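Dataset card, provenance and construction

Sequences and ligand SMILES were collected as paired inputs. For each pair, a complete structure of the chain with the small molecule in place was predicted and serialized as structure tokens. The example below shows a pair involving S-adenosylmethionine. Curators did not alter the output after generation; any descriptive sentences attached to a record were derived from the structure itself.
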Amino acid sequence: MAAEHASVHTPERAPIDTEVTPVPDVDEALVETVTDLAPGRALDLGCGRGQNAIWLARQGWTVGGVDISPAAIDESRDVAAAFDVDALFEVQDVTSWRPRYRYDLVLSTFALPAKGAGRSRMLDMAREAVAPGGTIIIRELDISLGRDGWMSERYLVSTDELERVFDGFRIDRKAVRITRHAIGTDERVLPVATFVATRRTDLRSL
Ligand SMILES: C[S@@+](CC[C@H](N)C(=O)[O-])C[C@H]1O[C@@H](n2cnc3c(N)ncnc32)[C@H](O)[C@@H]1O
């Protein structure tokens, strides 16, 4: 198949051409949050095609990305190679995997497992993976979509659920906003929950 032109966007949304299949835009909440952070070690859970991890690496972060899909990881590695970016992408199931390090930034965008034991294990792992002073960013379709019967609540999240899991963290952002969101090749206007929190450096949250 002929390679298509694709773009990974900078915060200014300037496209950068690369000879790989198209990848989605970099997450806007990630871009906003990272503006205030010094680069460190970052982990993208359910990284998909790697656009967020690669963007972070280009901002000077040391980045790891995991995804259960070998095809997604292959594609992430291809895009990283096209940008000459050093990022470590691994096939892993976030419901059972345990990272070796703690991270200054842990990210999950539209990749939470369905509600239940798998989600609980993943969120506990994500919580433990955040270093003292580090940041967690979670974005997911909001629970209100379930009330409209548009989608099963199992696949949605409420910011209150996340606040309970990240008890003891400082909440930096907890919001639900109607946002343009890509689902496959479709674009819908949907309520998206954004949760950003920082692990305190005092003993309570270590
Ligand atoms: C909707 S995509 C989002 C990808 C990316 N985070 C983004 O924002 O574009 C969800 C991703 O989660 C991955 N995923 C689903 N279940 C997973 C699991 N148990 N462990 C790791 N990755 C998983 C899928 O393979 C897919 O790449």
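Derived descriptions for this record:
The helical segments are 28-34, 51-58, 70-82, 117-129, 144-147, 159-165.
Residues 23-205 form a domain with the Rossmann fold fold (CATH 3.40.50.150).
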